[in-house]
């Protein structure tokens, strides 16, 4: 039987990507806000896969207030921005049923699954333990450009991601098969390593945020010795918080984060500085030249480092400074 996935956030970057890329492996129901729904129906949202001409994004779509237990799917794929708690509360209160859908979270950061679990327990009590909370780490940068007539969402292919069960029954064959059928490069992570997957993904997210706080691209920022040193120290602070929390970095397919973290942590700054332009060029190339932009979820990037540091009594002044600078930029 074909699985049904409700993708919450179509019209946005990540939601549109997943709805488009998984349309041949599952029945996709897009859930959008009113303005986004109008754009989709009017054909104003275009998909630009790297190397291909933009095409019209098409999807069965409903407005968020039309989401009820009658439309409830097998999975809710939540692609809205952090924090996740309000969205989890909104949609799961609308599908109060004996067998609620499983939840897939694609947000960056290391706290999304815990926030979702708390909300599900408030709604379903002990029955929340039956709901799988699946974390997805998407490694493809996705950009959105608006013109007078259209919104163009672009990314490179193949789609690369890692996924695993954060909470709930540790069975994931059904989702693995959906990703495989959709021809996504999906690396399955054992449940005991999902938190480490989140730590590893955040490491890649932090690269370039310091540069962005100065209004610079990663290549411009790394060319400045002072900014480069701040980039490295923010990552070293993060590595210390991860270690103290009992976590570790993983070498994921195409993203050997544990190796990168080890090199950045062990090599002296003067030596690293000699290669800073090459490092920046490699990172920018891997991101398809897409910059970090003005990160409006900074509390879930460097802010997460500060939060973990406070929990384990580790000082994180560089990450705190980056947070303050980004928020001041608005």
UniProtKB/TrEMBL annotation:
Enzyme class label: oxidoreductase
Gene3D superfamilies: N-(1-d-carboxylethyl)-l-norvaline Dehydrogenase, domain 2, NAD(P)-binding Rossmann-like Domain
Cleaved signal peptide residues: none
EC number(s) recorded for this UniProt protein: 1.1.1.169
Ketopantoate reductase N-terminal domain segment(s): 5-125
GO molecular function: 2-dehydropantoate 2-reductase activity
Involved pathway(s): Cofactor biosynthesis; (R)-pantothenate biosynthesis; (R)-pantoate from 3-methyl-2-oxobutanoate: step 2/2
Protein name according to UniProt: 2-dehydropantoate 2-reductase
Coiled coil: none
Pfam family, one: ApbA_C
Annotated ranges, domain Ketopantoate reductase C-terminal: 293-328
InterPro entries: 6-PGluconate_DH-like_C_sf, 6PGD_dom2, KPA_reductase, KPR_N
Catalytic activity: (R)-pantoate + NADP(+) = 2-dehydropantoate + NADPH + H(+)
Superkingdom per UniProt: Bacteria
Upper taxonomic lineage: Bacteria, Pseudomonadati, Caldisericota/Cryosericota group, Candidatus Cryosericota, Candidatus Cryosericia
